[in-house]
Amino acid sequence: MNLTRDDGIEPGTFIMDTSEHKEFRERMRLVLASFTQELPERISEIEALWDRLQTDWDIKALQELHRSVHNLVSNGRTFGYPELSSQARALERILKNLLREACITDVAQADGIWQQILELKRLSIEKEPVITSDMTVVADENAFLPDADGSNLIFVVEDDAEAAQELALQLRYYGYEVEVFNHLEKFHSAILHKPNAIILMDVEFPEDSLGGIHVMETIQRELPCPARVIFISVHDDMAFRLGAVRAGGVAYFTKPINSTELIDQLDLITASQIQEPFRVLIVDDSSTVLAYHTAILEQAEMIVKALPEPMRLLEVLSDFNPDIILMDLYMPECNGIELARVIRQMDGFLSTPIVYLSTENDFNTQPEAKSLSGDDFLVKPIDPAHLIAAITARVSRARSLRSLMIHDGLTGLLNHTAIKEELAREVGRSTRLNTPLSFAMVDIDFFKKVNDTYGHAAGDRVLKSLARLLKQRLRDTDIVGRYGGEEFAVIMNDTDATSAAKVIDEIRNVFSRLIHLSHDEEFSVNFSCGLADLAHFSDVATLSEAADKALYQAKQRGRNKVVVNVGD
């Protein structure tokens, strides 16, 4: 097969020749070759269906013929056969009208359809595929993904050595890696070697009242990408703030620094860099189309499940738990609209985005499809970058909306309902797999006194501090929620009570050393914890009750401790 380029670009000039890109291009080459190899059989199936209709008019056979021709419209253009695609489009329009009329009007019409099928056959044999660059090349696989390199590294640049070390200590409690610089020259050299570090920059230095701003102006010109810098200063006027913005500042804090608010800002910066890969379910009866779209989306570091048999949807859906579902509109056994309706009737998938990926360009059909359980309609063939961008936008929005529904507005942790659902789910999983699981109830000691003494705003900051500490000190597989008020719940998978108690006690010790600030007054807070595991309590109800009793015992024994309930 002679694969030629028509993009006008010299070979090897449009993409970095990395091993990943070589692998991707090889995958795409195999997909395109597979389509070319299968094309004669596809045309033969169309011929056979039309022959069948000549002797036995059958609406189901006509529907199958329409679907086969419809697939050639997008697939032909996608895989390098634009003339074939155009011819298939013309035939598809005729077949769609036949579906409405449910009969052949005259012999001439039948002969015309046969001549168009023969033309499809000729084009499939005589025409070589024309492979354009957008069929085999996707932009850098990281183009649509956040840059996570160096996301936890903080450079503290402050001439007051004692203040810098105290700030660094507080940041380390929250899991950040910190390097301290008391001189601008040393910092300047370091940031050029580690440009992805987040910078906490004091504005004033002994040698220059605007030294922090001036050095950042220079550095921003030297770095390939803008540095992320938070300025700190004793000044809170427009001139200083404007200078900080012009030097690339993303935030500005006045001294004394409220560490809780600073951590909030750092979390916002780093959170955008940490993102779970998108999970995409593609439903299409064409294995070639599935392979093509799978290669594109996997190149963009998405997790893809390809489903060629729509009737297997139910067994795949719950296990895979997709962020988005792409599906063809016309498939055997059921169409995309029917499939979407089934999905919308299932608990847990009511809000999952469903996007039709089809050659359907009938402007009457598209709104109908979207109004019947679908969310969007993408017309094939679709540019790879456009496909990735559309999925990214849909999934990001869906994740944001879901997050608002299941997360506590103050702490960002799972809310009461969501953490209870997770506990039931994880207890079921651990019971099924016979693996350990521990459940902890955490309660801030004398929290009412904190609110009464320092105000509710300070109390909210304490809650957020504990929430953040729990998330950063626990594993990604552990699940944390706000149970209510000053009470938190922690689910620790694959962990027995003894190991869980050790981890929680370490967090308790760190939390007691955190410094909180309210109107220039510093204070510290403790928490108590009750813990139980599945080895001693075998279901959700008894496990929750046991952890709650242990928490009560911790309070009774003087607070600021972890108590494990192992039953009688």
Present the secondary structure layout:
Blueprint: H1 19-55, H2 59-78, H3 82-101, H4 107-126, H5 133-136, E1 153-157, H6 161-173, E2 177-181, H7 184-193, E3 198-202, H8 211-222, E4 228-233, H9 238-246, E5 249-254, H10 259-271, E6 279-283, H11 287-299, E7 303-307, H12 313-320, E8 324-327, H13 336-344, E9 354-358, H14 365-371, E10 376-379, H15 384-406, H16 416-433, E11 437-444, H17 447-454, H18 456-473, E12 479-484, E13 487-493, H19 497-513, E14 516-518, E15 521-523, E16 527-533, H20 540-556, E17 562-564
Parallel strand pairs: 1-2, 1-3, 3-4, 4-5, 6-7, 6-8, 8-9, 9-10, 16-17
Antiparallel strand pairs: 11-13, 11-16, 12-13, 14-15
Model description:
The chain is α/β, with parallel strands linked by helices and about 575 residues long. It has four domains: about 20-135, Four Helix Bundle (Hemerythrin (Met), subunit A) (Up-down Bundle), CATH 1.20.120; about 155-270, Rossmann fold (3-Layer(aba) Sandwich), CATH 3.40.50; about 310-405, Rossmann fold; about 415-565, Alpha-Beta Plaits (2-Layer Sandwich), CATH 3.30.70. The chain has 20 helices and 17 strands. The strands form four sheets. A five-stranded parallel β-sheet has the order 2-1-3-4-5, sandwiched between helices. A five-stranded parallel β-sheet has the order 7-6-8-9-10, with helices on both faces. A five-stranded mixed β-sheet has the order 12-13-11-16-17, sandwiched between helices. Helix 1 runs antiparallel to helix 2, helix 2 packs antiparallel against helix 3 (about 80-100) and helix 17 crosses helix 18 (about 455-475). The longest helix is centred in the first third of the chain and has 37 residues, at about 20-55.
